[in-house]
Amino acid sequence: QITTLINHKDKPKRSDKTLQAIQRVGQAVNLAVGRFVTVGEAIANENHELKEEMSVACIEARRAGETIAQLTDVASLDHPESDSHITIFTDKTGVVKAARLLLSSVTKVLVLADRIVIKQIITSRNKVLATMEQLEKVSSFQEFVQIFSQFGNEMVEFAHLTGDRQNDLKDEKKKARMAASRAVLEKCTMMLLTASKTCLRHPDCESARINKDGVFHRMRLALEQVIEIVTDSRPNGENEMAPISIYSGIKEFKNKVEGLRENLYFLSKDNLSTMLEVILEHTEDFTDSAYTSHEHREHILELSKQAKMELEQLVSVWMQAQNQKTKDLMEDLEVAILKTCQCMNELKREVHSAATSLAADLLKYHTDHMVLKALKITGVEGNLEAVAEYTCKLSEQKEQLVEMCRLLRHVSGTEPLEITCIHAEDTFQVTGPQIISAAETLALHPSSKIAKENLEVFCEAWESQLSDMSMLLREINDVFEGRRGEKRVYLSLPRPGKHNANLKALKPVKLDTEEQAKIAKLGLELHLLTSDVDSETEKWEDQENEIVQHGQGMSSMAYSMYLFTRGEGLLKTTQDLFHQAEIFATEGTKLASALHAFSDQVHDDDKPLLLLEAEKLMSMCKQLQITAKASVQGKSATFTKVDACILKTRNMMTLLCQLLPLCCKLLRKNKAGNGCLKPAPPWREERIRTATNAHTPERRAETFGTKSLENHVTNMTFLESK
């Protein structure tokens, strides 16, 4: 809105409509600043150490907002230039100065508020650490129950604060690291409960103590990583550089090679040679691995040798072209560039095939969890010799899965997926020994119910990570095949036993093979529509546009519903699907509201069509909400409801495919100077209200991990009595 004011055209004739529009913008800016400053002042009153700085920044912002309102108070003036009243027309410099002061002071308020948020997270972390120290030292069940209850409440508060922070992070890499750390804390909360109880029940058992110490250590590391992300620092003052993956190395190498077309002198041949050497060193992770097949190993070695030869040829032609830029030499250079890039693509394809085929084989082989089942049985029998035998097998399995994660990281394709692979590797490394110590404790105390429960908790964590790996493998394959890019991960995605805490206990229902076959065609149509929507959103220059973001959100959720029709993805049961359909409809309603707001800027010729489409979308959202919330009983009725939800989602995605290009066209029309959009959009006030509502307790209740932490606290006494 400020940009609209500063860039307004100084026309000699000013219509009443123009004057009213300018005044409306000035008033809207002043009102928005007033609301913003009110929040800033409230924050200042609650945080005395920053009160003075915050108050000064708020006063500056309020003064700037009022100045802008005064300078744009022109609607009642017939001839503002002849009036003694100073306005935007007589003092445009004043508006520019006020705008700069406003942006400067608003930035100060935001920076100060951010410091307060960081301080809140650090304070919350310190509380958790202090209570953890108390939990480590307790010697009686009664004392443990009291302190764990306090610990649980503190973890819930920490989950809320870090969940909000995760949503606010713009860096996808940091967001993925934060999600990984918070996932560790969530899972470890239940582990800490059972491991501590086992240690209290069997205080002289060394394996029980080792088991408990491992949980505490892992939680402390996760808490430390959260603070590193929040404060953007590391304790030793150095930045941790993650080892480069083969994918990212090849991508950078190809960019440099292809850059030779534009500039023959922007890098040296040594730079290219060094980059290739680093890539080929990383391929040794595959060729040296005991789990890489002989065929893949041979192909990788052949392609590595070929890559060196292609680079030698490229460097030779490149050096000649630097000295003598003839047509023949430039053609030879183009051929050398193409052959080098083609060789690197083949190498990338080969390592991808090696990693994903190994992962698919291992996950299929370990899907029955035979070793875990055997450990539980032999533990209850008190058979120490058999437990020792199966712990060796679990250690072998752990090494295989760790190697699988390392190889998958090289071919993950995106930084968030790379971080997910690293997190998975750490999880297998840590959880394996913890299962072993829990199994040894049970074997030493075969009649102990708490030792049995403790082993179950650690085995469930292992099984859960294996399940997550199957989904990760599909995501890596999707990125490689160009089906999915770096999509936003919606925290509202339901996960079994976590986000449905506010629902009545329902028997989980999955689609059987016959039902999946019936709905497969509809699911495939939904999949194709998500690809179409993704293609349309990529055409927008402004990826932060509200319409684009809602469209991307709907596409991401529709894709998860498509995966459900294949029996894959995060949505495991029909209840998960219905909950996702409700969230999808809510996102559609937000998009419809954004379209209505956008239509207020559009001139009369374009407005009717846009409003008609927005009304259609709003109606479809209401219908989907009704269908998703409808109560049904019986297998046949449940499948009919699933079919109806997928069908209505497909229809909404079809409409979305029409809406996105229409809105994009109107925006481009405006940029071309055809005046499609009216100035002074007053609808941003609604956006501010919407943004505020997004942080209500109901919204935050969907935050990843919070519900399950609250469940741990609520059920803790009940678990103890058992």
UniProtKB/TrEMBL annotation:
<keyword id="KW-0963">Cytoplasm</keyword>
<dbReference type="InterPro" id="IPR030045">
    <property type="entry name" value="CTNNAL1"/>
</dbReference>
<dbReference type="GO" id="GO:0051015">
    <property type="term" value="F:actin filament binding"/>
</dbReference>
<dbReference type="InterPro" id="IPR036723">
    <property type="entry name" value="Alpha-catenin/vinculin-like_sf"/>
</dbReference>
<comment type="similarity">
    <text>Belongs to the vinculin/alpha-catenin family.</text>
</comment>
<dbReference type="GO" id="GO:0005737">
    <property type="term" value="C:cytoplasm"/>
</dbReference>
<dbReference type="GO" id="GO:0007266">
    <property type="term" value="P:Rho protein signal transduction"/>
</dbReference>
<protein>
    <recommendedName>
        <fullName>Alpha-catulin</fullName>
    </recommendedName>
</protein>
<dbReference type="GO" id="GO:0007155">
    <property type="term" value="P:cell adhesion"/>
</dbReference>
<dbReference type="Pfam" id="PF01044">
    <property type="entry name" value="Vinculin"/>
</dbReference>
<dbReference type="InterPro" id="IPR006077">
    <property type="entry name" value="Vinculin/catenin"/>
</dbReference>
